[in-house]
Specification:
alpha/beta, Rossmann fold, six-stranded parallel β-sheet, N-(1-d-carboxylethyl)-l-norvaline Dehydrogenase, domain 2
Amino acid sequence: MVEKAGFIGMGDIGLPMAKRIVEKYPTTIVGHRRREPIEEMKSLGATEVKTAREVGEASDAVVIMVQNDNQAEAVIYGPDGLLEGMKKGSGILMMGTFRPKFCQRVYDDAKAKGVDVIDAPVVGGRMGAEKGTLGISAGGDEAAIEKYREILETMGKITYCGAIGTGQVFKLANNMCAVVNSRMAYEAVAWGIRSGAKEEDLVKYMTNGSGSSYILQNWEWMNSIVSMDPPPPTYYVGAKDLHYALEIALDMLQPCPITGLVKELQVSGPPKLPKVE
């Protein structure tokens, strides 16, 4: 049973997730780059410590919501790292998007200490995080999933996917579709605007048609992200996720040519709509 929680990684999606956690559990946090989310969490009752190890020492379950494997490795294995402080019977909830093999490595290393690890990446964006309606694809031992179900369901709805790492497989497959769909939606809308269509009317029509997608259904929110200058770091996370998926595709000789093309487009920056004079 989780009585005390820890949270590491309070970015665009992580912060609203952490705010839901601190409403139900005494929560310990550690700072990274930005002070604003740390101060906001402290104002809600969270306790700040200086190292990830101290977060582990103070918590029954720790959520990791950093952006990539390198950041997660630094948190877990770095000096005063999280794994060093975790107690037997506690758990690491890897809720960012990471390579499945990295999750397997953490699982194996933690198991030697009697520490649970599940990979539980999320879909639904900031809106879902704020509402507590994220989709959570969970991989790991079924008993561990049940053990941490209550804290996970504070943030969203769980789909059990299988052994450790399969939660990431589900998430990466989703993001392959999501990022490719977003590029196609912008390409189609840009084409329509250049051909004389009004953006608002076109998006409404497409949302109700066979070309609909999550991107079109949440067009205003999506536009608010891609129109930022510079785009928030979470935008480029899509390119990272496609990179991870393509690494796996290469290992198993699975052709993913459309994903490869879109990854290069994603790295070059957000799509742009033509300006109507």
